[in-house]
Design goal:
single chain; alpha+beta; Ribosomal Protein S5, domain 2; Butyryl-CoA Dehydrogenase, subunit A, domain 3; 3 domains
């Protein structure tokens, strides 16, 4: 549903009655990578399977959706009658067989013959009304489930945005620490070379070249830029709404890729700490994104 973010867990219920029938419809869903609709219908009401499946597919794009339909007819309401015309036809045939020497049939035997006992005249009409009524309550239960999933998303969105704000803060902190990293590399390299060479002359150029190479390998500006871009993209997806869960999940993987690279390039303790904090926050974000449709 474009414009509105939905979660993937929720519950909906509807119930109704028609003539001698009563029924309940329960719809529930949990997280899933794709849409998986499972429907349980009472015997003889299998036609509701297609209706429920199409109604669920019209409302949801991800999640495991279960639809449980229970229906019963009150005791004694089913009603049966004996089809006297069919019974008479059997009796005519039986009379001919008896005349030829066959044993006379028992009453139980006659009543068990196909078509002798049948449901009451209104059974078929009642069943049509029942199917119509249950079909309406299937859509009601699924609509309640949709509302519940959107309510879940309404609680998720502030949490997701909070983690994105935290990632932006940590990225800015890491950028600040990275600016000091180049100087720290040069100073550390100079001190180490002087210790090894005991202050020998003519090493300034060599020190500068080596320090520059180390600083280049430790440059994390591109990672910072990509983290900022991913944060902006994630916020745009939340604003866009709809079924954005897959794309948000992909972005969390990209977030983590940049944070891992940042940690591998970090030379100072401060930058390493910022990178580890980023990884922890991104993992928390990923856990919440798993609940978005």
């Amino acid at each position: 549903m474009t414009g509105v973010i939905s979660g993937m867990t929720g519950f909906g219920r509807a119930e109704g009655a028609s003539s001698d029938w009563s029924w309940t419809v329960e719809a529930r869903s949990v997280n899933g990578r794709s849409l998986d609709v499972r429907i349980k219908t009472p015997p003889g009401l299998d036609g509701l399977d297609r209706l429920g499946r199409e109604a669920a597919q019209a409302r949801f794009q991800r999640g495991q959706v279960g639809l449980n339909i229970q229906a019963r007819r009150s005791d004694g309401a089913a009603g049966v009658r004996i089809n006297t015309e069919t019974l008479q036809a059997y009796r005519v045939v039986m009379a001919e067989l008896i005349a030829e020497g066959a044993a006379a049939p028992t009453a139980d035997g006659l009543l068990s013959l196909k078509g002798v006992i049948e449901s009451g005249d209104s059974a078929e009409e009642d069943l049509g009304a029942v199917l119509t009524g249950i079909g309406k309550d299937v859509t009601r239960a699924l609509d309640e489930l949709l509302v519940a999933r959107r309510d879940e998303a309404a609680r998720l969105v502030p949490v997701i945005l909070g983690f994105l704000d935290r990632i932006a803060e940590l990225t800015a902190q890491a950028r600040s620490e990275a600016e000091a990293q180049t100087l720290a590399i040069r100073e550390r390299f100079t001190r180490r070379v002087e210790e090894l060479t005991d202050g020998a002359a003519g090493l300034e150029d060599r020190i500068f070249q080596e320090a520059a190479m180390m600083a280049a390998r430790a440059d994390v500006r591109e990672e910072m830029d990509r983290l900022d871009a991913h944060t902006a993209s994630a916020r745009a997806l939340v604003d866009e709404g709809g079924a954005v869960g897959r794309r948000l999940d992909f972005l969390t993987q990209e977030f983590m890729r940049e944070a891992n690279t940042l940690c591998s390039k970090a030379v100072t303790l401060a930058l390493t700490t910022a990178g580890l904090d980023l990884k922890a926050t991104i993992e928390q974000l990923r856990e919440q994104v798993q609940n978005v449709e």
